[in-house]
Amino acid sequence: MASKLHQLRSKAVQASEFVAKHGSAYYKELMEKNKKYVVDPPTIEKCQELSKQLFYTRLASIPGRYEAFWEELNGVKHIWRNRNELRVEDAGVAALFGLELYAWFCVGEIVGRGFTFTGYYV
Q1: Domain for residue 119, yes or no?
Q2: With 60 as the cut, is the pLDDT of residue 119 above it?
Q3: For residue 86, what are the contacts with CB-CB under 8 A and spacing of at least 6?
């Protein structure tokens, strides 16, 4: 455990040295590329206004998302009703999608347990 802590600490030192050396240049390059998105003057009031605009814009998009959800659900219902006419390729794609979802959930569980397979820390 102590050796892992020492390795982690040395990696953190290396990362902070890299950021100290290259962080300023990266920041300047990033700001230069994206200056069209920067609001002038960058004040707290302007940030609060933009935050409210984002919130209410997202809120206004709920009815459209609601309708899109029901359209997708109706499409799934239609496919389920006509499942006898389903092609093998479509069934294969659906099976692969389901398998991928299951795999992501399994990976998420493993990550959530700290990359252990039994759930116990060794």
Answers
A1: no
A2: no
A3: 79
